[in-house]
Amino acid sequence: MRTTITLNNETHAFASYYAHARGLTLSAAIDELIHKAQAAPKFKPEICFSPNSGLPMFPPRDGTITAEMVKKIEEEEFDPKLFT
Prior knowledge:
Layout: H1 9-22, H2 26-39, E1 48-49, E2 56-57, H3 67-77
Helix pairs in contact: 1-2
């Protein structure tokens, strides 16, 4: 099928480099990349359960979320219009 698409510069550069490295046309390279993305394993977040409450939660990761980090995110993402 023939179609026209618009790519941003970074995506076009990556696809062009990929095509050149593999000896493919740009169309064949994009087709191959899409097929690879479709075949990639789907991300499924791990869920564990709190030993205290039994509620589901994401497993602990390295690092600590501080009150300052939460405050910064709240300030960046808070939209008062959503709460009126």
